[in-house]
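Subgroup meeting minutes
Present: P.N., E.W., G.H.
Scribe: E.W.

1. P.N. recapped why we're keeping a running log of single-chain structure predictions: easier to compare across weeks, and new members can see raw inputs and outputs side by side.
2. G.H. added today's entry (229 aa).
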Amino acid sequence: MGVVQEVKDGKFVESNSAASLANSKKKTGNDSLDKDAFLQLLVAQMKYQDPLEPTSNTEYISQYATFSELEQMQNMSASMDLFRASSLVGQTVLLKVTDSAGRTVNVQGNVDYVVYEKNKAYLSVNGDLYSMDDLDTVADPTYLEAYKLAADWKNIYNKLPAYENLTVADREKVEKLDEMYNGMSDYQKEFLTDEEVATMKKYVTKMKDLVAIAEANKGDGDDGGSDDE
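Output recorded in log:
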């Protein structure tokens, strides 16, 4: 699994992805004991045991059975992690990565795909790979939709002029805000402040009055311009 490192002032700069992968290798490194290594230790124990007080076969079998049970539990846990990683594709996640200096860096983005290597899962976020060990939060799709909708609404809201400067030229913005708000669920409306909603309603009311006045003036102008027979 290759990692590209940035070079600055002639020195390697460790990326967040490189730190995540390095930490993952440290955790797995040589700490795990596989079945072959266990059998080698078992053979060594039998070879160098005290011939006057040999270990019983029952004890050896018990040790092997215990190890096999532990190995099965580890494999099951790893399989669950791999399955969980697959379910994250397309979702927005927050990763907390600890760099070589011990600082915690937050990385947020969508999971594009998952890479599996040596029974470990790595998430591709923003074009870089990160260990599943650094996964901190998975954003709820309902929350993300509500957040984006509120952000779009506030973007239009912030472009409105002061209340006293409102004109018919702002009609499209005001009506769009009103339409978006009425289309929101109660949960989505919670992302807007009471002050913003109250102000919007004042704008909507004033805009209706401005439009009515403009249409009335237009009608008067048409009548005034008619020819007498």
